[in-house]
Each structure stands twice: as structure tokens, then as C-alpha cells.
Here is the input.
Amino acid sequence: MTGLAWASVPLYRMFCQATGLNGTTQRGTEAPGAVDGKMRIDFDTNVSAKLPWKFAPENPSETVDIGARDMVFFTATNTSTKPVTGTATFNVTPAQAGKYFTKIQCFCFTQQTLQPGETARMPVIFFVDPKIMADDDAKDIRTITLSYTFYPVDSGKTAS
Here is the structure.
């Protein structure tokens, strides 16, 4: 039972990544290329109360060509007097769009350390898989919201 409990978290994570369950996005290396179709992507950002950062997208939304590689930027500023390391969780809504939203590069794949007062410009490179247009449960989606929440790496501490 202990082994099953220990293995359940990574197995669930792999299942969500494979199926897009609960808005889990995919990881990829190359976009397939633009097709005839557009998708609006809205960006939502949040920061844990325990993390002294400001975090926002450079643009609140963007319309992209389905299948084409696109890049957007987010900025994060450490408002404390100490270096602080954060990590971002993410999801997309509607949830059924998760298996079609693929990230090639993302700041959310690694921890981010910002020095006191430092502002970082962080890219996300992504595409919306053209297969979304053939999925009966997802083909009517016209807007996907990509949401990030930053948390301190050591969530038991707060910086001042």
C-alpha cells in the first residue's frame, strides 16, 4: 500500500499529461505548422500570498494561428529585500483543451530565482494542436485561458 501511495502522484501526473485531464498541458519540441483556424489565448496570473512578487503577462490575450508556434512573455518582479525562488503551476481552461495546448518552452518547467528588486522577462513558446478542430468535445472552443500561479519554493517561509 505504501508503494502504491508513493507511486500514485507521478502516475496521476503522467496520466494527466497524456490525456490533458484537468487542463494539464502537453510538452513538445516542434509545432506542426499553421492551419486554417485561429484561437484566442487569454492569460491569467496569480501569486501566492507567501511570495513577494508581482507577476503579469505582457499582453492579457493574443489571437494565434492554430498549429503555429507562438511566443508570449510574462514579467515577474521580486518586491522583497532578499533573493526569492518561486515555481509556477499551470493549467488551461476549458479542461478539454489541455491535450491540445502544447508548450515547447516555459519558465514553469524550472524554478525561478529573482534577486531583490529584480524583474525578469519570461517567455512561453507554445502551439495549439490542429487536432482540436476534429475533436467533437473541443472543436467549438474559440478561447483558451492559460493560467499560472507562482508559489515560493519553500512555502513555509515568506520573504520581507
Q: What stands out?
A: Residues 4-22 have pLDDT under 50 and may be disordered. The CA atoms of residues 85 and 113 lie 4 Å apart. The helical segments are 2-19. The beta strands are 26-27, 38-47, 53-57, 61-65, 70-78, 84-93, 101-106, 112-114, 119-128, 143-152.
